[in-house]
Amino acid sequence: MRRQASMMAILAATAQGGAMAGDVEWGAYLAAECTTCHRRDGSADGIPAITGWPEAGFVAALRAYRGGARSSQTMQTVARGLDDGDIAALAAYFATYPPAAD
Q1: Is the pTM here over 0.70, yes or no?
Q2: 2-95 adopts what CATH topology?
């Protein structure tokens, strides 16, 4: 039930915000905070990989953290400091990397 509610919140956040083109250069600047935990090479090592995601999925995930629909205190704190333009920029930046190898 909780998982279904989370997915509904993610879909609602995506629909609510609509598509937004991200500024890759701004995303590269903002990514410094992300890459203190997440690796640019896509390796996980206990922290999920965020490289190569489709931009819409990346945006939906960060909006869900920001809104509290996804649980991770660290990610919620980070996401609450980002506006929609910042999130779109990060999505555009991390999409320039190849997806993580499984």
Answers
A1: yes
A2: Cytochrome Bc1 Complex; Chain D, domain 2 (1.10.760)
